[in-house]
Amino acid sequence: MAPNKTLAMAAVAALTAATLGACSGGGDDNGSSGGNVTMQLWMNATTGPGKAFWDKTAADFHTANPSVTIKVQSVQNEDLDGKLQTALNSDSAPDIFLQRGGGKMAAMVEAGQLKDITDDITDETRQAVGDAALKTGQVDGKAYAIPISILPGGLWYSKDLFQKAGVATPPTTLEELNAAVTKLKADGVPIALGGKDAWPAAHWYYFFALRACSPATLDATAKSKTFDDSCWTKAGEDLKAFADTKPFNDGFLSTSAQQGAGSSAGLVANYKASMELMGAWDPGVIASLTKDTKPLPDLGYFPFPAVPGGQGDPAAIMGGADGYSCSVGAPKECVDFLNYLLTKDVQEAYYKAFNALPVNKQAQGAVTEDYLKAVLDAYNKAPFVSQWLDTVYGQSVGNALNVSVVNLLAGKGDVAGIIKAVNEAARKG
Amino acid sequence: MSSNVGGDAAALTEDAPGSRVRDGGGVQAPPPSRPRRRGIGWAQRLEIAALSGPAILMFLSFVIFPVLMAAYYGFYRWKGFGVPTNFVNLDNYKTILQDGPFLEALWHNALIVVLSLVIQGPIAIVLALLLNQGIRGQSIIRVLIFVPFVIAEVIAGTGWSLMLQTNGAVNGVLRSIGLGWLTEDWLANPKLALWTLMMILTWKYIGFAVILFLAGMQNIPEELSEAAAVDGASYWQTQRRITLPLLGPTIRIWAFLSIIGALQLFDLVYIIWGQYVASTAGTSTMATYMVTEGRNAGNYGYGNAVAVVLFLISLLIALLYQRFVLRRDTEGALTEGR
Predict the structure, then answer these.
(1) Is B58 part of the contact surface with chain A (CB cutoff 8 Å)?
(2) What is the ipTM, given to two decimal places?
(3) Residue B274 and residue A196: Cβ atoms within 8 Å?
(4) A172-191 tens-digit pLDDT
(5) Which residue from A31, A154, A50 is spatially nearest to A98, judged by alpha carbons?
(6) The domain B91-337: what is its CATH number?
(7) Domain containing A346: what range?
(8) Do A189 and A301 fall within a single domain?
(9) From the list B165, B167, B276, which residue is nearest A402 (CB)?
(10) Closest Cα of chain B to A111: distance in Å?
């Protein structure tokens, strides 16, 4: 009996040692530099060209700076936020990591977990990227992240289905959109909406608000976090009037956004719906859901149409930007790497790997796809670029909008419910 | 090796009754029974500590500690990054108890508790009575009824959510057998969604109730029904006067498990209705509310306060149930022990 017990104890001890060893492996941040530096990088591309891009970029940077080694770690996209939060709170954060920006970034800044990189962004970077894009990484005028790709929103549509229904040019006004939807619905291809995930529904409200509210109001609301301007009600009423024409696919409330052929992106990918309102990540998602998992050949893009009677600019655009941050304990070489990410060649490689718009203006010349060119055109013409409203107003307001807009579309709530939910969200966080 | 383990177990079981005999001796000669406990040697104490230590440690660190931490975070307005600093006293709790969506979720939980008992109980008893008769293919039927309970919630939920979509299999079947007028938006129609959920819950958990009741019925001595038969009782009389009353303790335990499960219901709703549509469709529960308002909204302090409220409600109901309903059963168990 005794030998067995000893054996078991030894096994337990060995396991414990292995676990402890694994834990302590993560904590090799070195705040100072000089000599050899090793940095951890967390990103969300787990397979294919995306992962290859990061591996190659880290290796290239090491070749140019032999004293700096970057260990790239893939984290499944849905796991990333939780893991990152745990790592940041337990002082074992990676040196460089994917930054989604907005309210979460503000919370990280408030907790003192991000490196202030304001003075370390080089002039070349500033020139190549431009202030508008760099602003997405700032909190109270200080920079805590660099944008790596811009992801403006708009309507992604099938050119073939539009043509078949007799819609010659993409709609530019709400009236034209309504007329187009009537024709498309007659063909059985409505607008796809992933209502189960709620945020795609909330995006419709965001865009109506972008048309209804002036930039000054949008900015002021970021501070007050209350929807007391009448434009918020107008946006809700515009959305309600639009939803009352039943433009969305049947059962949109139980349709998810990105999972499987039954999702809204899947409906567009398989010609079961004519278009959907999404961010610029949509071409990649749609491509992964077509029958042969190749890009949709007739995919097109048009910006959200003009809506009459609002104070917003009819050409204003809304979108997000994926960025990268350095944790507060990261060595100064971290920012060198961020600057390197924004150089023309790396940005072109990024565009090719992710099929996403680069922020470097010179690299934008490499874009070949029609729909991406249409996005760039709309983006560069826009007099005002807003971030997604949940990014500007924080997760708590975004969550309240998600819930209340779904209620509105389901006929359970009304416009006043949206305003009330947002104003109450402030009490919860 | 396995024989060694067996030997170990045997040694333990021998020890346990031994100590009980010593205690029993104490009862016969009242006061000075305690000191005799010193009879447990250090080796035995070490063994008890070594064997129960890991379990106690796990319980403390994964049950008690999180509950205490949730209570602590619940007093703060906290976004989940860094250490909470914004102490708000009972504000979170005040907000919760005044929040319409939370009260709705609480109401849904109450409905699910009651409907689960009312729907699943009778059906399960009838099924158990049928299966207890020794009909043909009994074991196959038993397995079929029990299979849904074995399937993981996520898989069952994903399956149902695909089948119940407006263009899903259920409506497809209805249309193809000429019942097209019955097609419905099963998941998103607020008037229907809760009943859809109850249907899925019944399908999923009825097997558990049936197995429990069957086990309870096997424990009822056959002599009783034989005696009743001799006295001329009909089949239904036997079931009503003998089987059901003697099944009481089993039914009460099942009801307890069902109530607790219904109060904490999360996974099926979350999988089928997603993170947001549950409250719109009228199937949100306290647990889905906690995730929506806590994690999705990034209000971790508020979410922890919701967790505490959910914990207190479950605890209160569990204690009341133990005190007033299970009392007879547990008392019986204790008398036996004496």
Answers:
(1) no
(2) 0.71
(3) yes
(4) 999 999 999 999 999 999 99
(5) A50
(6) 1.10.3720.10
(7) 35-152+320-381
(8) yes
(9) B276
(10) 5
